[in-house]
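Let us practice reading a record.
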Amino acid sequence: MPNRSKRTLMAAAPGSVMVFVIAALQLARGASLTGLLPWTAGWAVVFAAVTWYTWWFYGDSPKALTLRARAEAKRLPRLGQ
């Protein structure tokens, strides 16, 4: 599996689990679907944005490659210590 796909799935997994857990807990407390929708939709949008950013960051665009190179350059001196 390509690194980009693996990283994106790993970013999406915690968000999916959290949205499911929030929905299950609220429904267990007796919440209606109309009361559940704002919280669930809000968190789903947040985690969708994080997933999209992860997909973009590990892509091939010049800006993403520059950001990734900077992150690698910062990390290399710390690993050498």
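A brief commentary: The mean pLDDT is 84.
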